[in-house]
Amino acid sequence: MKTLNQTAYINLSLIISVMAPMVINIVSPAIPFLMSYFLNSTLVNYVIPVAILGLLAGQIIAGLISINISKNTVIRAGLYAFILSSLICFLTSNIIIFLIGRFLQGVCASIIGVNNRALVREKFDGNTYGVVIGYVMLCWNIFVMVMPLIGGGIQILFGWKSIFLFNILLAIIILYANKLIVSPSSFRYQLRRKNKPFFVFFLNARFISNTLALGLITASGVIFVQFAPLFMHNNYRTNPFNIGFLTSFVGLSYIISNIIGTYALRSNRLSLGKHISSLCVCTGIIILVFFLNQGSISSFIIPTILIQLGFGIRSPIIAITTLKKYKFYASAATAAQGLMLWLASAVVSTTFGYTNNSNLKVYIFFVGTIFFIITLIEIFQKHILTAK
After folding, report:
1. pLDDT per position as a tens digit, 53-65
2. For 382, which DSSP code?
């Protein structure tokens, strides 16, 4: 493949990486209005968790079908299915069918993402591969932050249903670009015999504990996206665009924290990074508790920024041990990691959705529990796994 085509495929991979954060976050500013549209159905609380369950299911499907099927063929099929599922969400007025559409959106985005990263693995080697994957993950994190802002803007201009037309438009653009850029002979399609089998990864205790911790960190961001729109709408009467802006602003702290965590890894200051992470999370929780009954929106935004900053710093530090041992961006390994990560996130977000997820006390309890479990995992790895 020529350099021009390599550059084009890198750009295509970056666009594809947007799909998972789009499925999760772009609809978050519309949640208060979905409540009204679906007649205050409590099932609206599962609009985000059910998409995460779809992302989880997609990891399993991607792992099982990665044996001998062309990865690019799977990507194209996933894009067609994503368009159909988005159309379901746009057309329906039934909350059950809407949730089914959201679940299918998650499944399709997950399968597309796994095979996209696997194709990057097959095409690029060495330092080039690391740089490309770095771009892909940075793009993922940026759009986790940006998507609520885009969703709020679309809702104000065209109504919340237009969010799903935006989903369809993006999928069509990716599909057309894929057909232009990627030819059947562009990649060497590898069989699973060159990788570890899908379920072998779950036999390693360090792999499981690391990925569980990463899943809980992801869950901390997801429950914030579930919680913040309803809380800000109910307590501060914030409009959709401002909800999206404030949610995105908090998400910016996660990107900054990833940079800090990466610096801690490069400079071999893991302990310092963990201490800063713990300080940020604990300080954020204490401020939230102290200002529990305060009326200022800043008393909510500032501590949640600190909490996301703390979890974001910890993310690359936790990942380093597993990343050294496994090459994650083969199909089976990527799917195995994603399965554990989204399983933890789905359990937490679904449980949070079942509770009163506009109650600040409930949010504080969940965040504190997540931090406590991650601390226990690190103690387990340090004193038990290392001793073996």
Report:
1. 888 888 778 767 6
2. I
